[in-house]
Amino acid sequence: MGEFMNYLFEPFQNAEEVWFWFCGGIISRTEGIRQRGKCLNKNREIEVADVCRILKKMKQHHLITNRDLRIMFKWGCTGCSPYYNSRAKSSEIKSWHKGICGFEMCLKNKGLL
To answer: Angle at Cα 20 formed by Cα 65 and Cα 60, nearest 5°?
Structure first.
């Protein structure tokens, strides 16, 4: 039964969870670690490269800006959304909200949420 469980996918609960996972994957890559949809013994049906493609399409369709991405990555690396941090600026919260909402829409359209 244990081997069978290795092939099941652990679904993400929301776009923020995907985003934090993605930022962790980017950080791992900069440290020389490669991951292919598997993190903390949980198989995922998405890879870091898939998220990069989604973000590229979002930029092409003007759903997200470079500033939104910088803010999202900043907070994604902390593992906490700016909603829960008193040091977050209101403009960061707005960019985070705009980016995560658009990201969630794209993930749902692709059947990943």
So the answer is: 25
The DSSP output letter for 33 is -
User: Which sign does the torsion angle of CA 49, 46, 104, 86 carry?
Assistant: negative
Check residues 54 and 34 and name the one with the higher pLDDT: 54
Amino acid identity at 107:
L
Residue 54 CB contacts under 8 Å (≥ 6 apart), including other chains: 103, 106, 107, 110
User: In this prediction, what percent of the chain has a pLDDT beyond 90?
Assistant: 57
**Residue 104 exposed, middle or buried by CB count within 10 Å (0-12, 13-18, 19+):** middle
Tell me phi and psi for residue 38, to 5 degrees. Answer: -115, 125
CA 95 from chain centre, in angstroms, equals 15
Distance (Å, rounded) from C-alpha 106 to C-alpha 67?
A: 19
Q: Could you tell me if 39 and 22 are in contact, meaning their C-beta atoms sit under 8 angstroms apart?
A: no
Cα separations in angstroms, 85 against 27, 50, 64: 21, 29, 22
pLDDT of residue 34: 58
Q: How far is CA 53 from the centre of its chain?
A: 12
